[in-house]
Amino acid sequence: LTSVVIPTQPFEGQKPGTSGLRKKVAVFMEKHYTENFIQCILDAQGEKTKGSTLIVGGDGRYFTTQSINIIIRIASANEVNKLIIGRRGLLSTPAVSSLIRTHKCLGGIVLTASHNPGGIRNDFGIKYNIDNGGPAPDQMTNDIYELTNKITQYKITPDLDCDFQQTGVQHFEVDGREFVVEVIDPVEDYVQLMKNIFDFEKLRVLLSGSETQPPFNVLIDSMNGVTGVYVKRIFLEELGSNQDSAVRIIPLDNFGEIHPDPNLTYAKDLVDKVQEDTRYDFGAAFDGDGDRNMIIGKNAFFVTPSDSLAVIANNLDCIPYFRNHGVHGFARSMPTAAAVDRVAQKLKKEMFEVPTGWKYFGNLMDAGRLSLCGEESFGTGSDHIREKDGVWAVLAWLSIIEHKKMSVEDILKEHWKIYGRNYFTRYDYEECENEDANKMMDHLESFIADSSVIGKSFTNCGKTYLIKQADNFSYVDPIDHSEAKNQGIRILFEDGSRLIYRLSGTGSSGATIRIYVDSYEKTDTTADAQVMLKPLVNVGLQISKLKEFTGREEPTVIT
Ligand code: VG1
Ligand code: CO
Asked: What kind of architecture, by CATH, is found in domain 421-558?
């Protein structure tokens, strides 16, 4: 086989966002569009591309097969030595992260738009992960973006046909060099990793029951995403959970026309089932690519991701991995409520607050300063890999439940009793006009730039909030000292309450405004979060003038 050089021209807007490049499928289908981006990913690695091995796979959404064919043909022409591809193109994001580490690869190309809807009319995405298994840092995604703005040609092996529906190794000769494609089972490596972290014997007894104890009944919802293949193997086969304890476990390329995002709005099916059927002790859902998780208890008792992180942090001794490796620091993204900070303080662990996006945790983990971290957006994970990990989070919760012999609700109530409670909510306004959203953010910029706002008070529903600090969050990485600026407008109040405003970096059209609202209560810990936070939400709407700028009366999603 011989490679050829194809002339091309730059496309506008191939700028990776919070987590890769996400666009409508139709955009990726434009002639040369995907080819350009793949060529730029490889070019950004410089000489390291030659002779390298890369992992390739994703959540199986529409355009996965087409994009993998493109990757195979472009990688081979650019002297990549080997691609390791998940069978049928399937690999969860955490599985890619693990495989990069297990096989000591240069990196991996993850084909996913995560929780965004899939199918021919919806979103596709491409993300590059580096040799530590984590998302490419800002420096590299900026390099990729710059290359996309000046690309003039790409190299491709047009006649290379490679099937990846069955496992096995295939050898090709391209321009006189050997090129190898190894198609692997998508779950094998990941299952081994989980077995090394958790006590599968104990979890098996919990989920399948014993002579003295009925099974702990779980309902796991893969939302037609890639976790289906992992859930089937781990929960049904390895841990002996009942056949009907997992639903929507066949990955579909359009996710069955649902929004594969595990929260109370989009995973309502699961919430309703667990609420209606009191036999269920526990429910969990994952997003399309398997890095997000939602945890609910009996009667659909909801665990916020910020609390989930704090509870896991407080109970790491239930998990063999942490008993063996020790526990270093904890971290959360800035908008995530500070429940875990209180655990860190009590356990005397280092605590880090980073910008939104998993890429900011990687350096701290590589430096051995971070063991456990999370985001309010249903992401939880540890230093076993460099991505958030939905299945891992569920196994962590089940290990805690097994060890403490307590229900989800009782575990939370006990936690709040000790630490107090961080009430949290997030309002999302999806697909606003870009111009309106930018104007609102400009207005907030000028609001915080005016130093006279410090000490100003806002009263709503009888509650008064006094501004203590207002800024746009910036972060200096403690390891490589790189700086990330403009990561969200923060308004911090005297009583510890916070309002945070950001524009999403994962959408594919329009602007999504996120408002994060949280407050801390030492003793009043069992109220409804929406009721508790309503006055602060109102203050948040008043300060931002969101309704005036966007014309939106209500948020699209509340989490
Ligand atoms: C969102 C979340 C962020 C998360 C990111 C990727 O980003 O807020 O916490 O890391 O999605 O998650 P943004 O910029 O839209 O707020 V996933 O599961 O899409 O890889
Ligand atoms: Co995801």
From this structure: 2-Layer Sandwich (3.30)
